[in-house]
Structure formats: C-alpha cells, structure tokens
Design a protein that fits this description.
about 180 residues; alpha/beta; Rossmann fold; seven-stranded mixed beta sheet; two-stranded antiparallel sheet
C-alpha cells in the first residue's frame, strides 16, 4: 500500500476532523469527510469553513483538487485504507458521553475491510478503544481487530486558534494493534 493516494475517511468535520482532512489532502490522499449535519456539510462543500484554523482558501484549494469530498453518510466509502473518528465526547455528569463514538463505530463497521486501519481520535478514557470501539467494529464487519484490520487510538491534540501549537507541530502519541 502506497503512503500517498490512500482512501481516507474522516468521521466528523469539526475542529479536529477538518484539519486532519485538509492535511491528508495536502499529502495527496483522497478524503471523504463525513459531516452528519446537512447545513455544515453544505457549507464545507461550498468552500465555507466554520473552523477557525481552516481558511476558506485552504478549504477551497482542497475541494479544487478533487481529493476532498464532503458527505452526510458513509455510502460509497467501501475500500477505505484509513478511517479516523473525530466525533465529540461531551461531558455528561462528569464523564464523557460515548454515544457519538458508538454511533460512528456502528456506521463505519460495514465498510471495514481486511487490511484497513481505524483510528479513534475522540477524547475519551483509557479502555474505550479496546472495550467499546473495536468490539463494535468487529461485530459490524465480521472481522477481527488486530488480525483482519487494525485499530488505533491517538488523542486529539488540537488547541483551536493557538498561533504557536497546531496540527503540524504538536507531538502526538499513537497506540494500536
């Protein structure tokens, strides 16, 4: 598998997902950006960024390459090489609400194929990837994580609007199997 021109799915086009999508396009990957809110998806498709760290020009350039597509569903994402899940995990009574992670895993699972990699990038507590995320991907795909496909976790490290530290220069930790 070539390191360039991979099919990448980024689930969530918020302050984490959109910058990841833009960076992947800049490296020559073909990106499907999933944004379930139709109004936000329409804005992105029109080149109108609602994310502080991504200018309309940068978004427009990505769209003009033909390598960035915005969608409100995962239809047509069969055969992806890498999927990155960047959905919100708002606090509910002091603990992260994992329902968005659960929904993303269930939606993505039917499209997971042998050799693909799925990375959870949403903020959550230790164990979420192995105890919740991977089992949902396995159940919906019929495949085995670590054998048929790969699962990783990399906590998001984006500080929106920070002029010094941004996606390109912030150190990241990645784990997986």
């Amino acid at each position: 598998m070539s390191s360039h021109n991979q099919r990448v799915v980024v689930v969530g086009q918020g302050y984490v997902g959109l910058p990841i999508s833009m960076r992947a396009v800049a490296y020559g990957h073909r990106v499907l950006g999933l944004e379930v809110d139709p109004a936000r998806a329409a804005r992105l498709a029109a080149g109108d960024s609602y994310i502080e760290d991504i200018s309309d020009d940068e978004l427009g350039e990505a769209l003009s390459t033909g390598h960035f597509e915005v969608a409100t569903s995962l239809e047509g994402s069969q055969g992806f090489d890498v999927a990155v899940v960047t959905v919100p995990t708002p606090l509910r009574e002091g603990t992260p609400d994992l329902s968005f992670i659960e929904d993303a895993a269930k939606q993505l699972a039917p499209y997971v194929a042998k050799g693909s990699t799925v990375i959870l990038e949403s903020t959550t507590y230790p164990g979420t990837t192995e105890e919740l995320f991977a089992p949902l991907l396995e159940a919906g795909s019929g495949l085995v994580a670590g054998e048929d496909f790969y699962v990783g976790y990399s906590p998001e490290r984006i500080d929106p609007g920070n002029p010094t530290w941004h996606l390109e220069n912030t150190p990241k930790v990645v784990s997986g199997n």
